[in-house]
Design a protein that fits this description.
This protein is mostly helical. The chain is built from 2 helices and no strands. The chain is extended and about 40 Å long.
Length: 65
């Protein structure tokens, strides 16, 4: 069965300790939240807390005036 990826969303794969993943999943279930929802919130908080958010320019931007 193909995965359903919501519009505007992207897939992210990470590796974490098995025990931590199980604790995380159980905690999400207990709070009636999806793991994706919680990870998205945590990543957003971390990005917002960083002093410099400027993305590096890619090569296609060079020479554009």
């Amino acid at each position: 069965m193909p995965k359903h990826i919501p519009p505007g969303a992207a897939e992210l794969s990470v590796y974490i300790d098995k025990e931590l993943k199980m604790e995380f999943k159980l905690t999400c279930v207990a709070q009636n939240k999806s793991m994706s929802e919680v990870i998205g919130e945590l990543v957003k908080q971390w990005v917002d807390s960083q002093p410099q958010k400027q993305l590096p320019k890619n090569d296609s931007d060079k020479g554009a005036a």
